[in-house]
Amino acid sequence: MHRFYRASAALFAVLAAILFGTPASAEIVLDYTHDTGFFSSNATAKAALEAAASDINAVLNLNLDAITDDTVTGNGGGGTVLNFDFRYQYTNPATGASVTVNDTTTPANEIRIYVGMRNLTGSTLGQGGSGGSGIAIGGVSGSGPISAAIADAQASYQHRRNEGPVIGTLSGNVSGNSFSFEMGPALGNLWFDQDTNNDGATDSAAVLNANWHFDHTTSVAAGKDDFYSVALHEMLHSIGFGGSETWDDLVSGTDWLGSEVIDLNGTGTGIIDGGGAHFAAGLMSTRITDGMAQEVVMDPTLTTGTRKYLTDLDVALLRDIGYLNASAVPEPSTWFALAMIGGGACYRRRRQRAKQSMEAAADV
């Protein structure tokens, strides 16, 4: 089944190139900086993770601007200058500690996701979310209007990245003059459970292999949790699904307000999980590869012994939150800091289709 899926994704890319050319498009880049040895020693798990990234990349057909100016200077006339120094934060996927990235320069079309393994409790299989952002303001000088310097900086900053969802907004004021910077997708983090028997200790390789199904090219063994499916789910959280400002604007209780999903599904009423970060449990759609019915990737649970692939509803929601071209098939000196916390959510196992609730995971 998965060989067909990979061939289909490749076919979509070929058709897109024929019909529309081959413009650069957004791409998830996996970062193993915090890998403590799991992925470097488990080639099968790493291949499943990278296959999930590749399958999401195949539908992210939009262009994200490069970020070349980490510090943005606003000139207000009369010698007035303000420096807005941006930074990113993400969660170390191995330890849970907050990591600050002071240099926010980012290549065009890149969304970097830091990956790792961590001991999780209960039935939680993995957690993921978008990163956070911060800003410091300094270098205030001159006698001209501060509001003009702010407006100048807002007109030239690059962190919105032109396309994609708004992950969050950095706002505040300087001497009573307000500023606001929308932040686009740039980085995220995700991690997988390495205490699958919940004994409080990191699993041995034998225990991990007994509970995880790592090989994305073979059918999922009975009683095992599919690593590829969890990777697919958590990566979508890491690029704004369930944890972005754009997402929040489109959720009203358990209703979804986005037109792409409503047009496809016929309604947005009651299709969001009560926790607010997933589709409702058990929501069905069709796989983008073969049109077969399947539970959506982005409901809160995964049944042991099964695998999920991207569905039409998963892709429609990506379009709704700002990945506008996401498509399954090509179609004709005082300093201060302000922290914005990124969203996060977790994926849980489900045995014999007994539903379990979603737990929110704070991501900093």
From TrEMBL:
Keywords tagged on the record: Signal
Checking SUPFAM superfamilies in the record gives:
Metalloproteases ('zincins'), catalytic domain (SSF55486)
Q: Which InterPro entries match?
A: Ice-binding_C
Q: Among its keywords, does the record have Signal? A: yes
Residues in the signal sequence: 1-26
Q: Does the keyword Signal apply?
A: yes
Q: What is this protein called?
A: Uncharacterized protein
